[in-house]
């Protein structure tokens, strides 16, 4: 299986940009109609909503979830990176949580729980979270079956050694 890289959804950022452009258009329109009575700095008010778009863009860069190479890796943070890793054979559960607003946008939070204490990776809002969860579960099943097969081979070899002695 090729590595699967999952990042937060860009839908919030796109919505913020659209709303910021619309508001900037309204501010410019009001300024053009009332140029004599308004100061030039009123145009700067139209730039304020672009902060939401920048925050949305930063949100897409702060987290990446990678499935492949026998593990699920979550890297979080912009300046201070934090990394969590769970072997696919140790994945106990993959859960999808979606609020009402997340269901409207088609996004959700994917939670990967491992068998050990503290083994938990929580994503941000990702697109098609059920599909992402299914892909992680499928990879974990394959890895678990491979681990079980390796364990069975080792046990068979040990039994052969014991039988030959």
Q: What are the SSEs and their pairings?
A:
Elements: E1 4-6, H1 11-33, H2 42-45, H3 50-61, E2 63-68, E3 71-76, E4 82-87, E5 91-97, H4 100-105, E6 107-114, E7 120-127, H5 129-164
Antiparallel strand pairs: 1-2, 2-3, 3-4, 5-6, 6-7
Helix pairs in contact: 1-3
Structural overview:
With 165 residues, the protein is of the alpha+beta class. It has a single domain (4-164), classed as PH-domain like (Roll). It contains five helices and seven strands, in the order βαααββββαββα. It has helices at 11-33, 42-45, 50-61, 100-105, 129-164; strands spanning 4-6, 63-68, 71-76, 82-87, 91-97, 107-114, 120-127. Strands 1-2-3-4 form a four-stranded antiparallel sheet. Strand 3 (71-76) and strand 4 (82-87) form a beta hairpin. The longest helix has 36 residues, at 129-164. It is elongated, with a radius of gyration of 25 Å. It starts with a strand and ends with a helix. The mean pLDDT is 81.
Task: Explain briefly what this protein structure is.
The protein has helices at residues 11-33, 42-45, 50-61, 100-105, 129-164; strands spanning 4-6, 63-68, 71-76, 82-87, 91-97, 107-114, 120-127. With 165 residues, the protein is α+β, with helices and mostly antiparallel strands.
